[in-house]
Amino acid sequence: RQGSELSGWAMGRWTYEGIDLNHNFADLNTALWDAEDNDLVPHQFPNHYIPIPEYYTLANATVAPETRAVIDWMQRFPFVLSANLHGGELVVTYPFDMTRTYWKAQELTPTPDDGVFRWLATVYATSNLAMANQDRRLCHYDDFARVGNIINGANWHTVPGSMNDFSYLHTNCFEITVELSCDKFPHASELPAEWENNREALLLYMEQVHRGIKGVVRDRDTEQGIPNAIISVDGINHDIRT
C-alpha cells in the first residue's frame, strides 16, 4: 500500500503514451483572455462555446485517444453539471484552474459564474464526512479546513488544459474537482468507508442540477422549441445555449 506522500504519488498519472490527462484538454482560456484584453468579447469572439483551436485537431497533436473520446462524448450530450474525482488531498476545487497571469503558479482566477461554482463546491465539501470532520489531520501542509475545504483551482496551482475549464468554455457544463482523500491509493478494505464519506455528498451535488434558470425557449408564433438559442444574464459575462 502506498500513501500519497510516498514515492508512488505520481503512479498512474500518465497514460501508456506518456500523456497527463489532467492537462490534455485544449487551452481555451488563453484565447478568451486575449480576446477580452482586445475588447473583442462577445461581439467578435464568444464568451462561451469557444471553438477548439485548429492545432488541437491535427492528427499529430499530442492529444490522448481518451481525451478525444471524452470531448466527443461531451459534444454529443448536453451535460450541465459534472464532478471529477481525484485523490491525494481533501478539498474541492472549482474553475478557473489556469491562472490568468500566464507565468504565475498561483493566482485567484474566478469565472464569471464564481458564486455558482463556490456554492457547488461548498455543497460537496460540507456534506463529505472526511472534509466535514473538524478533527481531521492535514493531508500535507495546506489547511483547507480554514477556508471551508474549497479553493479556486488556479489559486492552488495552475493547470493549463484542464477538463473543468474546457467544460465551462466549450460546453454548457459546470464542473468541479473533488480531492477525495489524503491517501491516493486506499486499500480495498477502506473502500466501504470511502463510499460512506462520499455517498451523501454525491447525491446532494447531483440535486444541484435543479438550481438556476430552467425552461424552454419557444418560437412566439409557432410555439416550437428553439435549439441553440443563446441565453444571456445581465452582469454575467458567460452565456449558455439551449
From TrEMBL:
In what residue span(s) does the Peptidase M14 domain sit?
Answer: 1-209
| GO terms, molecular function | metallocarboxypeptidase activity; zinc ion binding
Q: Name one GO biological process term.
A: proteolysis
Keywords from the named record: Carboxypeptidase, Hydrolase, Metal-binding, Metalloprotease, Protease, Zinc
**Pfam families reported in the protein's UniProt record:** Peptidase_M14
Question: One GO cellular component from the entry?
Answer: extracellular space
Name the needed cofactors: Zn(2+)
Determine if Hydrolase is one of this entry's keywords.
yes
Q: Identify its protein family.
A: Belongs to the peptidase M14 family.
| Protein name, entry field | CPXM1 carboxypeptidase
Q: Which organism is it from?
A: Hemiprocne comata
